[in-house]
């Protein structure tokens, strides 16, 4: 086996942290030089099976991982688990695509997955190269007999898959990350794509599911038997980004164990939340601005895939079986169905969700006031509730659902900003960034999505009186700041 060649291209280096470590294949090469035997093992000559890790960073309920393990074992080949990091680089709006909180959380989530895999004699390799670059490089040196991966939904994810297929890589896509597979939905499916004929808004989607009485599939168990990892050391370059300072006001301190990224913390949190008295009152508390018990806080783990939504749904079933159904448990399911709806909307509409007028081609295109957008990002709009929210987001990577709506509405309606710029800012900042939920919610509020009322304009004074009557939240985040 020849030593690994230098990478064809290196991912762009943006700032410090992960961007500065865009050198996996460089490190692979160095590793191969240090361990010349490592990448010449019989397994590698005969071939290998790959699990391409995407937004499914877990061992439980993971069809792609299970298929990769089964195929590797059946063929007697090693399994390589490889995770290209999320795309980084400057956005068209003038800021980096990965903000410091998300960057660190993405990294920690992979570290946690590596820890889980090591319990089974496996390890995780990662790269800041694109999937096509990284897997192409691998395939140039090793016989990659199969690549198993979670099926992508967003246009960028689909383009990544197309680039692998164009290189002749044997890609197997697995539906995962949602509650339902396409075939289990109660809607007709397009013969060419297999995609469902989705109702035009959320309520008929939910009602059709309720009428059909269809339930999400049961979560799959972890793989029972594991193939060997490729012989020798996996290249694990030291890419760790700096840990952002923990703001003592954070309501989701992701550097502390209960909120830490990864599957183990996700499952512990799921259990703890459902064992708490928070579930029955969820519908009444969910709009709170900063109380960590007010809503489930499952989204950061759902976003990386450390938690499967089917596992969360099944845990709710078990909770109800033991403690009874409640308004709160019903409503958590409704919210999980919102997530599901936006997944299918992205699958069906794809790139249209990124057009200036989204799903409303005849509508007036949004304007954009760049200076006002900048003030919005920095929390200097002079609108106290919005400024407080935007400061919390920048300082902690978290924002309650209510404030996500309020701040989005203010950007669009008070500040004349483009909804796509707002969506890009949330993408960079949110710990729980998820392409479907983010783009779908932004389009909805902007009136370019599936809101039957044509978009939302929140009355800021009313929102402040209703959700921050004493001004505590505004004081917490605005004190000491000039607008
Ligand atoms: C403009 C805007 C952008 C958003 N961007 C994201 C995003 O990038 N990632 C993300 O996960 N959520 C996003 N949301 C949805 C929602 O704000 C978060 O899912 C929720 O605040 C997460 O907190 P939680 O886990 O405590 O939610 P809960 O209130 O406990 O809800 C339980 C789960 O249901 C799902 N859910 C709840 N509300 C929504 C919703 N409106 N749309 C889709 N799914 C929902 C989430 O998976 C959530 O974890 C966005 C909402 C808005 C208005």
UniProtKB/TrEMBL annotation:
Q: Which cofactor does it need?
A: (6R)-5,10-methylene-5,6,7,8-tetrahydrofolate; FAD
Q: Which UniProt keywords apply?
A: Chromophore, FAD, Flavoprotein
Q: Which PROSITE patterns does the protein's record reference?
A: DNA_PHOTOLYASES_1_1, PHR_CRY_ALPHA_BETA, PROKAR_LIPOPROTEIN
* Co-factor remark: Binds 1 5,10-methenyltetrahydrofolate (MTHF) per subunit. Binds 1 FAD per subunit.
Residue ranges, annotated region (Disordered):
210-260
Which InterPro entries does the UniProt entry name for this protein? Cry_DASH, Crypto/Photolyase_FAD-like_sf, Crypto/Photolyase_N_sf, Cryptochr/Photolyase_FAD-bd, Cryptochrome/DNA_photolyase_1, DNA_photolyase_1_CS_C, DNA_photolyase_N, Rossmann-like_a/b/a_fold
Domain Photolyase/cryptochrome alpha/beta, first and last residues per copy: 47-179
The keyword Transmembrane helix appears for this protein: no
UniProt superkingdom: Bacteria
Query: Where does this protein have compositionally biased stretches of type Pro residues?
Result: 218-230, 238-247
- Give yes or no: UniProt keyword Flavoprotein: yes
Q: Which family does it belong to?
A: Belongs to the DNA photolyase class-1 family.
**What biological function has been recorded for the protein in this entry?**
May have a photoreceptor function.
Q: Name it.
A: Cryptochrome DASH
Q: Which organism is it from?
A: Roseateles flavus
């Amino acid at each position: 086996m020849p030593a690994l060649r230098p990478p064809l291209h290196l991912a762009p280096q943006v700032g410090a942290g992960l961007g500065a470590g865009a050198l996996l294949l460089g490190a692979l090469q160095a590793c191969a030089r240090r361990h010349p035997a490592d990448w010449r093992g019989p397994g590698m000559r005969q071939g290998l099976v790959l699990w391409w890790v995407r937004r499914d960073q877990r061992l439980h309920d993971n069809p792609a991982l299970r298929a990769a393990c089964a195929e590797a074992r059946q063929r007697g080949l090693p399994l390589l688990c490889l995770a290209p990091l999320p795309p980084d680089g400057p956005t068209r709006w003038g800021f980096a695509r990965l903000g410091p909180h998300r960057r660190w959380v993405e990294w920690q989530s992979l570290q946690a997955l590596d820890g889980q895999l090591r319990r089974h004699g496996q390890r995780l390799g990662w790269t800041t190269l694109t999937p096509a670059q990284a897997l192409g490089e691998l395939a140039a040196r090793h016989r990659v007999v199969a690549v198993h991966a979670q099926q992508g939904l967003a246009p960028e994810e689909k383009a990544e898959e197309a680039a692998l297929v164009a290189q002749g890589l044997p890609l197997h896509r697995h539906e995962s990350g949602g509650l339902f597979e396409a075939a289990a939905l109660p809607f007709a499916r397009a013969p060419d794509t297999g995609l469902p004929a989705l109702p035009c808004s959320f309520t008929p989607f939910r009602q059709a599911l309720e009428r059909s009485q269809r339930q999400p599939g049961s979560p799959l168990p972890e793989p029972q038997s594991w193939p060997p990892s490729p012989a020798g050391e996996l290249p694990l370059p030291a890419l760790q980004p700096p840990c952002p300072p923990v703001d003592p006001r954070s309501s989701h301190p992701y550097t502390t164990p209960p909120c830490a990224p990864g599957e183990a913390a996700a499952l512990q949190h799921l259990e703890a939340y459902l064992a708490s008295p928070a579930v029955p009152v969820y519908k009444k508390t969910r709009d709170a601005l900063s109380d960590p018990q007010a809503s489930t806080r499952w989204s950061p783990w759902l976003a990386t895939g450390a938690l499967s939504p089917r596992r969360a749904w099944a845990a709710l079933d078990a909770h109800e079986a033991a403690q009874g159904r409640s308004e709160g448990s019903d409503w958590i399911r409704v919210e999980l169905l919102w997530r599901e709806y936006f997944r299918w909307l992205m699958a069906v509409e794809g790139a249209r969700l990124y057009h200036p007028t989204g799903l409303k081609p005849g509508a007036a295109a949004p304007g954009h006031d760049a200076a006002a957008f900048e003030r919005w990002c920095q929390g200097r709009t002079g609108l106290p509730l919005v400024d407080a929210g935007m400061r919390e987001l920048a300082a902690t990577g978290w924002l309650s659902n209510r404030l996500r709506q309020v701040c989005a509405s203010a950007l669009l309606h008070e500040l004349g900003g483009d909804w796509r710029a707002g969506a890009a800012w949330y993408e960079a900042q949110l710990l729980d960034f998820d392409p479907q939920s983010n783009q779908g919610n932004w389009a909805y509020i902007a009136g370019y999505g599936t809101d039957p009322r044509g978009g939302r304009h929140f009355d800021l004074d009313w929102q402040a009186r209703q959700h921050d009557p004493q001004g505590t939240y505004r004081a917490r985040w605005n004190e000491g700041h000039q607008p």
